[in-house]
Write a structure and sequence with these properties.
By secondary structure, this protein is an alpha+beta fold. Helices cover about 35% and strands about 25% of the residues. InterPro entries: Acyl_CoA_acyltransferase, GNAT_dom.
């Protein structure tokens, strides 16, 4: 049986507040909140991810995921399947209901059944690439856990980039995991930006491989333009 959010935890809950630059030209600091993504904003969050994450994340960009109708249909289906688990989080600028950033979250378990299969060759390849890197990490044995908080997309609106929003979205996982009784969060970070954000929060590197090396593992794992960059699996223990 899969993970279920404890009924005693209010939904939605605010997990983190922080200050960052607002949208004004004066650079004045404003307050932001990171909270559970409310059900009434699921469609907005999927739209945000489709416009930004599907296009800008470097694996997706290299494979042209956002230009493949079948791939987009299937990744949207996956997000829509995960959001009702009530673990995903959204960032708002206080006083505004505009979505600043989203992180789609779920719990991976060593008792999970077989991984899903997709019709889209592009999305299946990206999914299999992340699966391969995860297998090399061996999270369950490395950390002695049966489950961990995983992610399937972190996106920040381009208007708000450069303010450390991604770092704060990752930081919010700490209080969320503590409340849920989850002892570990682990994610495949595919580019230097997200890897740097993870390091700032305290994630440690478990496994690293260049995209050129990935292409040697499986010809499908070739990502044009990324050969010299690294993909890293990183984890954060929750005390």
């Amino acid at each position: 049986m899969g993970f279920k959010r404890p009924v005693e935890i209010p939904y939605p809950t605010v997990w983190h507040r922080f200050q960052a630059k607002g949208l004004g030209e004066d650079g004045q600091l404003e307050w932001y909140t990171i909270q559970d993504l409310p059900e009434e904003r699921f469609e907005d969050a999927v739209r945000h991810l489709s416009e930004h994450f599907a296009r800008d994340e470097q694996m997706n960009q290299a494979k042209g995921l956002d230009r493949d109708e079948c791939a987009m249909k299937e990744v949207v289906q996956l997000w829509n399947a995960m959001l009702p688990e009530r673990l995903s989080v959204v960032c708002f600028r206080e006083g505004s209901d505009e979505i600043v950033g989203v992180n789609v979250l779920g719990v991976a378990s060593k008792f999970d059944k077989e991984e899903p299969k997709f019709k889209s060759e592009i999305f299946q390849t990206i999914f299999d690439t992340i699966g391969y890197i995860s297998q090399q990490t061996n999270v369950y044995e490395r950390y002695g856990v049966d489950q961990y908080l995983n992610a399937m997309g972190l996106s920040v609106d381009p208007v708000y980039r450069g303010r450390g929003i991604a770092t704060e979205l990752l930081r919010a996982r700490v209080s969320l995991c503590k409340a849920m009784g989850i002892k570990l969060t682990s994610t495949c970070f595919t580019g230097p930006g997200s890897q740097g954000a993870a390091r700032k929060v305290g994630f440690e590197e478990n496994f690293s491989i260049t995209y050129a090396e990935l292409a040697k593992v499986d010809a499908r794992f070739e990502y044009p333009g990324l050969q010299e960059k690294c993909c890293k699996y990183m984890s954060l223990k929750i005390d």
